């Protein structure tokens, strides 16, 4: 994702994507319902499953960091999304998966028809819609929840991702990433998401670098290493060896300070390759 040429990092990213696909499949089967944890803490940024520990330089933790308390709007003041409109399943959804999703969506809708204020269930329904390939319905639910919880960085992140990767509306994706950053300025996730949007889709390298540098002094701990390594990777990919070494060195020093000698060693290897 960040264009890191290092074989070590590329291998990790492939493993990470495979793991993500496995988790996604488990969610579809109802084995994992991560949304319940997110709903119970609506101002946190989604975290990975490593409980704050990272496994490779440049792809360190993206663990949750609480932002400002959400400003709430009464559910009753807003018209909720329809619970009876037909779900439009994606062409790539198999009959077996469609059956599973249809049953789960029916259950969630039935519950919401009796309790429209159940935030957790609305979040779950949005995810099911997205899994089904009905991105418009997912959008309607997340935008409804964003109107009720304007400072909910999780929902704002979900909308940014939806607009960036599925609805292909990059202007709205940018807006939601910025709102998510405002809601949780000490979390790395949305700085990196916005960096990727600027770099790969909007083709704005200046903004891509600037958003990472904005996050560096705000984000601490292992998440700060994410931002430093992303900057190192960007400069490495664009042929700016001097800046690449500078930021990989900062990431290495931060890893060493955190007591992670494995990270530091891998960063040292990248730095050594850049100096050849």
Task: Please state roughly what percent of the residues sit in beta strands, choosing from under 5%, 5-15%, 15-25%, 25-35%, 35-45% or over 45%.
Answer: under 5%
- The fourth-level CATH homologous superfamily of the largest domain is Tetratricopeptide repeat domain
**CATH class category label of the largest domain:** Mainly Alpha
Give the rounded overall mean pLDDT: 80
| CATH architect. name of the largest domain | Alpha Horseshoe
| Coarse shape | elongated
Report the strand count: 0
- The number of distinct structural domains comes to 2
**Alpha-carbon distance between the termini?**
25 Å
Determine the fraction of residues in helical runs and give it as a percent range. Answer: 55-70%
Helix tally equals 12
Could you say what the CATH topology of the largest domain is called? Serine Threonine Protein Phosphatase 5, Tetratricopeptide repeat
Main β sheet profile: none
Model regions low in confidence, pLDDT < 50 over at least 5 residues: 1-72
Structural class: mainly alpha
Can you describe what's shown?
The protein has 276 residues and is mainly alpha-helical. It has two domains: 1-67 and 171-276, Tetratricopeptide repeat domain (Serine Threonine Protein Phosphatase 5, Tetratricopeptide repeat, Alpha Horseshoe), CATH 1.25.40; 73-148, no CATH class. Helices cover 64% and strands 0% of the residues. α4 (119-132) packs antiparallel against α5 (135-148) and α11 runs antiparallel to α12 (261-275). The chain is elongated, with a radius of gyration of 20 Å. The protein starts with 6 loop residues before the first helix and ends with a helix. Mean pLDDT is 80; it is low at 1-72.
């Amino acid at each position: 994702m960040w264009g890191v040429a290092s074989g070590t990092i590329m291998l990790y990213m492939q493993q990470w994507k495979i793991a993500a696909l496995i988790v996604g499949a488990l969610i579809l089967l109802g084995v994992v319902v991560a949304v319940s944890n997110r709903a119970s803490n609506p101002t946190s940024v989604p975290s990975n499953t490593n409980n704050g520990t990272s496994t490779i330089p440049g792809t360190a933790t993206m663990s949750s960091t609480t932002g400002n308390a959400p400003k709430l709007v009464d559910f009753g003041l807003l018209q909720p999304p329809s619970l009876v409109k037909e779900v439009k399943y994606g062409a790539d959804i198999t009959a077996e998966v469609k059956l599973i999703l249809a049953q789960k969506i029916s259950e969630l809708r039935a519950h919401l028809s009796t309790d429209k204020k159940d935030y957790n269930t609305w979040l779950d329904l949005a995810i099911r819609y997205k899994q089904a390939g009905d991105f418009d319905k997912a959008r309607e639910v997340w935008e409804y929840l964003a109107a009720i919880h304007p400072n909910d960085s999780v929902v704002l992140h979900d909308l940014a991702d939806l607009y960036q990767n599925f609805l292909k509306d990059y202007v709205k994706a940018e807006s939601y990433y910025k709102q998510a950053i405002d809601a949780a300025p000490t979390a790395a996730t949305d700085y990196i998401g916005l960096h990727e949007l600027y770099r790969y889709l909007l083709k704005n390298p200046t903004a891509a670098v600037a958003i990472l540098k904005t996050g560096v002094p705000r984000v601490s701990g292992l998440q700060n290493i994410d931002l430093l390594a992303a900057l190192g990777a960007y400069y490495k990919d664009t042929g700016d060896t001097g800046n690449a070494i500078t930021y990989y060195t900062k990431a290495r020093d931060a890893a060493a300070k955190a007591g992670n000698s494995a990270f530091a060693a891998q960063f040292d290897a990248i730095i050594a390759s850049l100096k050849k």
